[in-house]
Amino acid sequence: MIKDQLGPTVLDYDAHYGDISKAFGGDSYRVSNYAEMKDALEKAYESGNPTIIDAQIPASMGKESGHIGNLNPKLDLSALEEEENK
């Protein structure tokens, strides 16, 4: 790790993030389209339980919501590359 540099955040498309909610007694739904999202939101609201809705967004849709990639920290990997090239 480079001093004072934030680590990258990578969300794995195949990870089941809803399992975190289940581990603490909540509910979770994994959705990939509007109909599934609508159903999950209705069930979450009716249950009254803490809920995670894991929305699967294809990589072809672009970067994170709102295309705010310019706000993500830029990693300076030059020190690692220099070390690797020794």
From TrEMBL:
Q: Which superkingdom is the protein from?
A: Bacteria
Record keyword Lyase present: yes
InterPro entries (UniProt xref): THDP-binding
User: How is this protein named in the record?
Assistant: Oxalyl-CoA decarboxylase
Q: What is its EC number?
A: 4.1.1.8
According to the UniProt record, where is the region Disordered?
63-86
Annotated keywords: Lyase
Single GO molecular function: oxalyl-CoA decarboxylase activity
Identify which top EC class this enzyme belongs to: lyase
